[in-house]
Specification:
The complex is a heterodimer of chains A (about 140) and B (about 260). Chain A is α+β, with helices and mostly antiparallel strands and about 140 residues long. Chain A has one domain: Single Sheet (N-terminal domain of TfIIb). Chain A has helices at about 5, 40-45, 55-60, 100-110, and strands at about 25-35, 110-120, 125-130, 130-135. In chain B, strands 3-2-1-4-5-9-8 form a seven-stranded mixed β-sheet, with helices on both faces. Bound molecules: zinc ion.
C-alpha cells in the first residue's frame, strides 16, 4: 500500500468517520518496501492540491522517515527552473526537480508491506499483509 | 445490524464473497476488456481527479486512465492482489457497506457489477448511499457540482443474451460459474482418445479432473429499479441507460 493511499483512508467503522481523530490511520509495526515506479510529473502536480500535508507529515514521522518540509511544495517547486534547464526548444519537456523526485519516492514508491493501521478514535487495528490492507470488520463491529 | 441485515450479509458471504475468492484467478483471466461507457466516463475525468473503484475485481478499469488516482477496493483478497499491479492506483480489501474512506473525499467513483450481488432491497439502498457518501458534496447554490459515480448492474431484460432472462422472470437468481478442468485438447468430434497426453495414459478415467461449478447470487434489476434505489438513497441521476444486458446510471449527491 502506497503512502499516498493513506491520504484517502480512514476507519471503516461508521461511527468513527465523523471523529477527527480517525484520520489519518496510524501505521504500527510497519515494514516498508520501496517499489520503484515511473515518475509522472503532471500526475504529481495534479495530486498536490489533494494532499493533507500535515497528516502526511504525521505518518512519515511515525514511520521514522525523513521529515517532510513544514509546508507542501508548490507546482513550481516540482519543476527544474527554466534557466537551469536546457533551453533549446521552447516546448522542451519539463524536468522533475529533486523535490518532485522526493515526493514521488515518499508518496508513490514507499509502501507498507506488512504491519497494522490503527484508528486513532476507536483503536481498531487493520492488518496489512503482502502490501494489502484489509478493512473487513469482524461481525460485532459491523 | 437488524436480523434481516445480518441474514442478508451472511447470505452474501456464502453465495457471493466465498465464490469470488475461489474463482479469482480464473475469473480474472476472463475480465480484461473495459466496456466503452465506463471507459468514456473515466477518460473524461480531469487530470488529477481522485476516485474510488468500489468492487474493483481484478482491477480492469484501473488501466483506463493513469492521469487520475483511484483507490480500488474489493471483498476478495485474491482479486485485490491482482488489481494491485495497476499504477499509479492502489487497492485495498474492503466491503461496500463499510468503506474505509473519509466522507466526501472523492471526485468520482465507479461501481461496476457489484450491487447486483446484494440480497435485500434495504441493503441495496445502503450500498448506493455508501457510494454517494464518498463523493464531494455539491457547492452551495450549484446543484450537480458534486462528485459523480457510475453504477452498473445486470439487467433482468436481456432476452437476446445467452441467459435469455426477460421481463416477468424471477429477479433473484443463482448463476453458475463453471471452472473448466484442465483437460487435454480433446474435442467434441471424438478424437479425444488420441489427444490424451502419454503421461496421462496410466490414469483411470475417474481421476480425470472434473469441471467445477460455483453458484453466485444475483439480483437482476428491472427497468427503472436502479434509478428508484438511487432516489431512495438520496442521489440524483445525471444520466442513465441500458448497455449490453446491463442498466447503468451516473449519480451525484443532492444538495
Ligand atoms: Zn475507528
Amino acid at each position: 500500500m502506497k503512502l499516498l493511499t493513506l491520504n484517502f483512508l480512514t476507519c471503516a467503522i461508521k461511527t468513527c468517520k465523523s471523529a477527527p481523530s480517525s484520520f489519518p490511520l496510524h501505521p504500527r509495526d510497519a515494514s516498508l518496501e520501496v517499489i520503484e515506479t515511473d515518475l509522472n510529473l503532471p500526475f504529481l502536480k495534479n495530486i498536490l492540491p489533494r494532499l493533507m500535508w500535515d497528516e502526511l507529515r504525521v505518518i512519515t514521522s511515525e514511520l521514522g522517515l525523513p521529515d517532510l518540509p513544514p509546508t507542501p511544495p508548490t507546482r513550481e517547486d516540482l519543476v527544474v527552473a527554466a534557466e537551469d534547464a536546457a533551453v533549446e526548444g521552447e516546448e522542451s519537456e519539463e524536468e522533475a526537480s529533486q523535490t518532485a523526485k522526493d515526493l514521488h519516492r515518499v508518496l508513490l514508491e514507499t509502501t507498507v508491506k506488512e504491519g497494522k493501521l490503527v484508528c486513532g478514535n476507536c483503536g481498531h487495528e487493520y492488518k496489512v499483509l503482502e502490501g494489502v490492507p484489509n478493512f473487513l470488520l469482524p461481525g460485532h463491529l459491523v | 445490524m437488524t436480523d434481516a441485515e445480518q441474514q442478508g450479509a451472511a447470505y452474501e458471504e456464502e453465495h457471493v464473497h466465498a465464490v469470488y475468492e475461489q474463482i479469482a484467478s480464473h475469473f480474472s483471466a476472463t475480465r480484461y476488456k473495459p466496456w466503452p461507457i465506463i471507459e468514456r466516463f473515466l477518460k473524461e475525468l480531469p487530470d488529477g481527479a481522485v476516485g474510488a473503484d468500489v468492487g474493483c475485481g481484478n482491477g480492469k478499469y484501473l488501466t483506463v486512465n493513469p492521469r487520475v488516482f483511484m483507490v480500488a477496493s474489493d471483498r476478495s483478497t485474491n482479486l485485490v492482489k491482482i488489481a494491485k499491479q495497476h499504477q499509479p492506483h492502489d487497492s485495498v480489501v474492503a466491503d461496500v457497506m463499510n468503506l474505509p474512506h473519509p466522507k466526501h473525499s472523492f471526485d468520482f467513483a465507479i461501481s461496476i457489477a457489484v450491487i447486483h450481488h446484494i440480497s435485500t432491497p434495504e441493503r441495496r439502498i445502503e450500498a448506493v448511499k455508501a457510494i454517494l457518501e464518498l463523493l464531494r458534496s455539491p457547492l452551495a447554490g450549484n446543484p450537480g457540482s458534486g462528485g459523480r459515480a457510475l453504477i452498473y448492474v445486470w439487467a433482468l431484460e436481456q432476452k437476446d443474451s445467452r441467459r435469455g432472462w426477460d421481463e416477468g422472470n424471477e429477479q433473484d437468481v443463482m448463476v453458475p460459474w463453471v471452472m473448466r478442468a484442465k483437460k487435454e485438447k480433446e474435442s467434441k468430434k471424438g478424437k479425444g482418445q488420441k489427444a490424451i497426453d502419454s503421461s496421462n495414459e496410466a490414469e483411470q478415467p475417474s481421476e480425470q479432473p472434473q469441471d467445477k461449478t460455483f453458484l453466485r447470487y444475483y439480483h437482476l434489476y428491472r427497468k427503472g429499479e436502479l434509478e428508484q434505489i438511487i432516489g431512495e438513497a438520496g442521489g440524483e441521476v445525471v444520466e442513465a441507460g441500458y448497455d449490453k444486458d446491463n442498466w447503468w446510471a451516473v449519480v451525484t449527491p443532492q444538495l
